[in-house]
TrEMBL record:
Positions of transmembrane segments: 6-29
Protein name, UniProt field: GIY-YIG nuclease domain-containing protein
Keyword terms: Coiled coil, Membrane, Plasmid, Transmembrane, Transmembrane helix
InterPro entries for this protein: Phage_T5_Orf172_DNA-bd (IPR018306), SNIPE (IPR025280)
Coiled coil ranges: 223-350
Pfam families: SNIPE (PF13250), T5orf172 (PF10544)
Superkingdom, natural source: Bacteria
Residues covered by the Bacteriophage T5 Orf172 DNA-binding domain: 367-450
Length: 491
């Protein structure tokens, strides 16, 4: 090895070795510093890890406890579910039913809304159908106002025949139904006229059938409904014939209305005449009874006169106690004869003067309620017979009598009393029903004004009615007390 090379190596060694050592020392110092820092961090992490491990152990212990508690709670829940299974099912069912209720409520609301709409349509249709229905409410159709004022049923009958003859004349004159269009069929005017005549004939037949049905079914309660039925048939048939230009005339319609009104009023007049004949027959019967009463009273007076004459004749030859007995008998017979004579004169007066009679005022609280009186007239010799007759079978309780007023003009007194209470007449349609809604004080005031000397009794005995009420109250009281004293058959 050459000296230069050795020197170079030595120099290099001298120069490199310290630098390398210095670099090594610097690197070592840095690594040591890092190591110390890492050791410090390791110690710190070790402490944190220890702390975490402690917390983890504590958490694991707590988790174990919770797991055990969960098992216990699960067992308890299972037991409770088993115990309250029915309750849970009920709650579920309740919830289900509540949901169903909401659904059904919505359906009900929908149905109600739909009902309102359909009810409106129904009401409209029922009014249209009601025209052909005899059961239409009388109040809805209103009160029929008479169109004619003939004196008897024969006049109505004659006018019905006149109206029907006018209808036939219109049909013959071809003015009942008309067709202003001159139709042609297959180019023939004659065929067109034949078709028109056939259409008019069918139209009138349909309309006449409707009118005849309405007139035949006409009653006091549906006259206005039958009028509307005819008017509806007129409108509908004319509407159906719009295409062939055939129409029923207004004049023919008016004749049909007249026939309807005349027929109805004719029937009502017949009914009134029947009632009038019945009233006349009753009056004639009462007059015959008055004559018989007069004859019986006359016979009774003659019998007492014979007995009195006989007693006087026998008394002429009697003496002592026997004479006193005859005198007593004669006094009694004279008194009976005077009563019989007065009875005969009253019966004779009533038989000869048909306007004389008794006006009676009676009430029946059990049958008609309070403040309802009947004001009637009878020509019977004993007016109480008529009152008993009224209370025998037609009403459940007997009448109480408040006044029996004899008058030479009994019909006039009766009419005056009726006029006094006309606004409160119970039956405003049938004037033979003589009941009035009035208090006894009001009736008494009217009687005192129209017949000042007539006695009036305001007492209402109503014995049967009051005894009936008492019996019903006793029965109800017994029924109310019975459940408190009887034990039920089962509980």
């Amino acid at each position: 090895m050459s000296p230069e090379y050795s020197v170079a190596i030595a120099v290099t060694f001298v120069l490199v070795i310290p630098g390398a050592m210095l670099a090594f020392l610097v690197l070592w110092w840095r690594q040591r510093r890092k190591a110390r820092k890492a050791v410090a961090e390791a110690f710190q992490l070790s402490g944190e890890l220890t702390e975490k491990n402690a917390k983890l152990a504590k958490a694991m212990e707590l988790g174990h406890q919770l797991h055990e508690e969960k098992g216990v709670l699960t067992e308890r829940v299972a037991g409770l579910e088993e115990r309250f299974k029915s309750v849970l099912d009920v709650e579920a069912e309740v919830s289900k039913l509540q949901t169903q209720v909401k659904i059904e409520t919505m359906k009900i609301d929908d149905l109600r809304n739909s009902y309102v709409e359909k009810r409106t349509i129904y009401d409209r249709l029922i009014k249209e159908v009601a025209i052909f229905d005899e059961k239409l409410a009388f109040a809805e159709m209103g009160v029929y106002e008479p169109h004619f004022e003939f004196n008897d049923s024969e006049e109505y009958k004659r006018n019905i025949e006149v109206v029907r003859a006018s209808q036939k004349a219109m049909v013959t004159a071809k003015t009942a139904a008309v067709c202003p269009t001159a139709w042609t069929v297959e180019g023939s005017t004659a065929k067109g006229q034949t078709m028109t005549n056939r259409n008019i004939k069918l139209t009138l037949r349909a309309f006449n059938n409707e009118c005849e049905a309405a007139i035949a079914n006409c009653r006091w309660s549906n006259v206005n409904a039958m009028e509307k039925r005819i008017a509806t048939a007129f409108t509908q048939i004319n509407k159906l014939n719009e295409s062939n230009h055939v129409s029923i005339t207004e004049s023919y319609l008016k004749l049909k209305f007249q026939e309807l009104f005349l027929t109805h009023e004719y029937r009502e007049k017949l009914k009134a005449e029947r009632e009038e004949r019945a009233e006349l027959a009753r009056a004639a019967k009462e007059e015959q009874k008055l004559i018989r009463d007069m004859e019986r009273a006359e016979e009774e007076e003659a019998r007492y006169q014979r007995l009195l004459d006989k007693a006087k004749a026998e008394a002429e030859s009697a003496v002592g106690p026997k004479l006193e007995a005859f005198n007593t008998q004669i006094e009694m017979l004279e008194r009976d004869l005077a009563e019989a004579h007065a009875k005969f004169e009253r019966a004779q007066a009533m038989a000869e003067k048909t306007r004389s009679g008794y006006v009676y005022i009676i009430s029946n609280v059990g049958s008609f309620g309070s403040d309802v009186v009947k004001i009637g007239l009878t020509r019977r010799l004993d007016p109480a017979d008529r009152i008993r007759e009224l209370g025998d079978a037609s009403v459940p309780f007997v009448f109480d009598t408040h006044a029996i007023i004899y008058s030479d003009n009994a019909p006039g007194l009766e009419r005056a009393l009726h006029a006094e209470f006309e606004p409160v007449r119970v039956n405003a349609q049938n004037y033979r029903k003589e009941f009035f809604k009035a208090t006894l004080d009001e009736v008494e005031a009217a009687v005192k004004r129209l017949a000042p000397d007539a006695p009036f009794f305001k007492d209402i005995e109503a014995q049967d009615y009051r005894e009936t009420l008492a019996k019903r109250r006793s029965t109800l009281l017994a029924q109310e007390m019975a459940p408190e004293t009887l034990l039920p058959e089962a509980i």
